[in-house]
TrEMBL record:
Coiled coil: none annotated. The lineage of its organism: Bacteria, Bacillati, Bacillota, Clostridia, Lachnospirales. Keywords: Membrane, Transmembrane, Transmembrane helix. This is DUF1648 domain-containing protein. InterPro entries: DUF1648 (IPR012867).
Amino acid sequence: MKLVGSRKFTWGICSIGILLAIVSVFFLPQIIPVHFANGIADGFGNKMEVFLFPILLFIITLLTGKEKIKYFLTHSKIFLTDVQYNLMIDGVLGIILIAEIYVIYASFV
């Protein structure tokens, strides 16, 4: 079975986000940037806000595994195969993971 396009890959992305937040919370400063405009931080928050990304990753991963949601998303107007559906979800999770990495990176720069 191929890893890319499977639910294992989706859960892997989710796991990476959770582990990244857990490890980074020990090294982050108390105040971290949480909002950016033109690449410049203009909103700040507590370092615990870094856990909002893994929570979002986990919720999306759980919800997109439900058969009713999967059926709705794959059979509405555009018919998607299981692999295409998983790749679409993995893309969304990847964007959220990149945003998490950017917030962590911007906290140290």
